[in-house]
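FW: tagging you since you asked about this chain on Friday. Here's the raw sequence from the shared folder, copied in full. Didn't touch anything.
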Amino acid sequence: MKWDELLGRFSRSSVFQSKAWLDYLALAWGAETQLLGIYGKGGLAGCLPLLSKKMWGMRLLGSPLRGWGVPHMGPAYDAALSPGAVGAAMAEYLKGLRYSYFEMKTLGQTVDLQQWGFRRRSLVNFTVDLRHGPDRVWQRFKGRARTSIRKAAKGGVCVRLERGLGFLEWYYPMVKDTFRRKGAKSNESRERLRAACALLEAASQRLALSAWLDGVPVAGAILVYGKREMAYWSGASEPRFNWACANSAIQWEAIQRACRLGLERYSMGGGRPDSGAGMFKISFGAEVEELQLWSQAKNGLLSGAVRLYERVNTWRRGR
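HL: got it, structure written out here
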């Protein structure tokens, strides 16, 4: 059975566990992939993509590792299995491996590794429920989102579907500038972004949208989708055109397309609920759900370095 067919058997699966994503991570980050089975009393009951990479003389394991542009991964499994049972199976398997650091980010409480000495941090993801169609989704929008969408339409913003890779010529510089304004640096090089778009488009898992005003691209977004979920993966805009509300127009177009594909949920990514980005997402009817970040460092020096990295990132996001 092919990997994606196996994933489709489990309700707790995501596009970020798909073969196209794993191929991208192997190509872009030099990661080695292990495709693991999780077995229950009745046989195969789940699966786990696990990636490994050697850096600075250490072996790092991740599903995924931070900095790789993957919002979440972890295991997919039958609803009959409990998070504790999945955690026990994973802990038993990891005992037989030699590694310096392990990390995994899961959507919701899908795994419990705490009793085996793994550290847990809670993060946030924003998700829009699409199961009742676009009209119901629109009704759940707050006034801010509706006003912005109408303003974009009235101002002449046109949202287009981008096919192929040509849009990256203007989109990638826009991404770099967006990160620069935030005082950050994108981990996605032009080559990595091109590789991701090519692999995901070939697998029919990529949607690229652009917003244009007076013949000029003013915003863009790359979205990915599987059988149940569409996720906002990358986005950028020109700040001098913020008044045109092009990002709101793109979000609404993405939600409508996800509904037409029969998807159940639209993931808008993470952030703090009280931040500007968080309030923007909530205005689209997004609900807050938990991401769990599990980690284990095999020595104190590495553990301290990870905690310092987390504190610096928290400070930068809070500026």
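FW: The two ends are 48 Å apart (CA to CA).
HL: agreed, and The CA atoms of residues 60 and 101 lie 5 Å apart.
FW: great, closing this out.
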